[in-house]
Design brief:
Blueprint lengths: L11 E9 L2 E8 L7 H12 L4 H20 L9 H13 L18 H33 L1
Antiparallel strand pairs: 1-2
Keywords: DNA-binding
Organism: Streptomyces flavidovirens
Protein name: Integrase
């Protein structure tokens, strides 16, 4: 629909990380260099700190990585996306086939349903709120240190 069918490149991925000796969690890293995506990983840490279930964090990690990859592919600033750009993202989620599960590709085309697109839209709103919350906290801490 938007001229990118079959050419999407994933820039970010969700990875399970060992946080302490007996605790694991999820982070978002770049696919090429495994550099940590700071804000995305802070969002997941916020879910952990809020007591969300492990599977919730895992699901949101993959969805956040997909959103960040989409923004990178389209050269969009993930924190400043417009309503029109978000609408294009939601349409892309439903229109773009999922990668084949078959080794070497060639399996039947699979598509996300609209409920998945809506869940990612809700994630986007949560992600932006979490980013603003952490940014406010960080600014407050740095201001307190400078006094």
């Amino acid at each position: 629909m938007f001229g990118i069918r079959g050419t999407f490149v994933t820039s970010f991925r969700a990875e399970r990380a060992t946080l302490t000796q007996d605790k694991t969690g999820w982070v978002i890293v770049g696919t090429d260099d495994y550099a940590l995506h700071h804000e995305g990983s802070l969002f997941l840490a916020g879910l952990r700190d809020a007591g969300r279930a492990y599977n919730t964090e895992r699901t949101y990690a993959g969805r956040a990585a997909l959103y960040l990859s989409y923004c990178t592919f389209h050269r969009l600033e993930w924190a400043q996306i417009t309503v029109w750009q978000l609408a294009r993202f939601l349409h892309w989620l439903v229109e773009e086939p999922l990668p084949s599960r078959a080794r070497g590709g060639g399996g039947p085309e699979r598509f996300r349903d609209e409920n998945t697109a809506n869940a990612l839209h809700e994630l986007r709103a949560c992600d932006q709120q979490m980013y603003l919350t952490h940014a406010d906290k960080a600014c407050g801490e740095s201001a307190a240190r400078s006094v």
